[in-house]
Specification:
membrane, 2 helices
Amino acid sequence: MNVLLPTVLGLFLYFPEDKSEYFPAAISFTIFMIACVFTMRWIIKKSRKEELKTKNLEEEVTRRNQHLKKNSLH
């Protein structure tokens, strides 16, 4: 089993002699990285909007509850 391990792991490693074979990988990596950055920024922006909506709703409910408490005491 120990004899086969380096052979099996060696199948997944490939370092090409011609370095131009790295360009397609670099291009696709760059495209996906840019897409990830935009997606993360979009998620953060949406999260902030939702946080603001939730905060406003919470303040409205708190005001209503205080108003109801005040009216029930009188």
